[in-house]
Each structure stands twice: as C-alpha cells, then as structure tokens.
Amino acid sequence: MFTAGVLTISDKGAAGQREDRSGPAIGEVLSALGGSVVRSDVVPDEPAAIQDRLRQWAGDGLDLIITTGGTGLGPRDITPEATLGVVDRLVPGIAETLRAQGLKATPHAMLSRGVAGVRGRCLIINLPGSPKAVREGMEVVRPALVHAIELLRGEYTEHPPS
Question: What is the pLDDT of residue 155?
C-alpha cells in the first residue's frame, strides 16, 4: 500500500473549460497497484502553483506524485522546469524509458520533456496530458513503481531477484 497524488496541469482544466480525463486514468492504474490516491487537483500552467502543490504533497508524506500535462513544447508547457525546481535528485531512467517506449507508438514522443525525481522520500513523475499517453506511460512505469517506493521508504535495500 502506498499513498499517491495526481496533479493535472492545465490552464483550461483549472478554469473549468476542459474535463480532466488524464488524472482519473492515472488513479485507475495506481489503485490496481495497491496505491491510494489521497490527493488530486488541477492547477494552471503556472510555476508557483505547480511547485507549491508538489512541495505541499511531498511534505505531507505522499510516496508518489504523478503529474499530467505541460510537458510539451507549447509556450505554457513548464511542468518539467517547475518539477526541477522542487526535486532533490533526478531519476533520469524513468524519463528516458518513457520517451523510448513512447517512440514505439508515435514519433511525437521525442518532443516530451517530462522529468522524474525525488523530493525527500516522494517520487515525482511527469507524464504528458493526453489520456492515451498517460495510459501508455503508466504501463511503462508500473513494473518499477512499488520497488522505487520501497527503496525511498528504506524498506527494501536488497535488489529483487531477476
């Protein structure tokens, strides 16, 4: 069992002009893994709003935060920069694997700038904003999530058998 937060970054979503379908898709996958989504919110593409929520949720002791949206090349896509402003350590293998696997589905995956990192004992992962990309991304990270959380908690210090 682990606790998670799902943060959707969308100007239109925060203004009530677009229904958030990506956040609930993340929640479904996390629940299937035994996670409990205890925080979810939609914030605009504003660095301060994103960073405040990430700091607050990580400080509340969440094990995992998944963001969705704001990872592309649009002028307001600043989720990676906001995330980099709050993490203590990067986990580049997650972002690299997400892009590599995404390229199998679409060449547009190379345009995703999402990052992954750790704040305290909380793993933070950026995913794109589309429900399809979220489902594909969650499938990519799913096999390593529980082990990553165990490592961050200090519960599991040996490598699992291959």
Answer: 87
